[in-house]
Amino acid sequence: MTNTVAVGRSRFTGAALEILSAMLILGGAWAVDTGQFRRRRQIWSTERRIAHRYGRDMFDVSDLPAPPNTAVTPVPDLESLTGIARQAERPILRHVNGNVTVFVVDDPPRLYRFELTKLPEPAEPAPYSAATFTAGNVVPASYAGRSSFARTLTQIAPALCAGVNPANLVVATTSSNSGTSQNDLILGRNAAGSQTLSGGNGNDCIVAGGGAGTTNTLQAGAGSGDVCIGSPGAVNAYSGCEATGTAS
Question: How far is residue 39's CA from residue 32's CA, in Å, rounded to a whole number?
Answer without folding.
Answer: 11
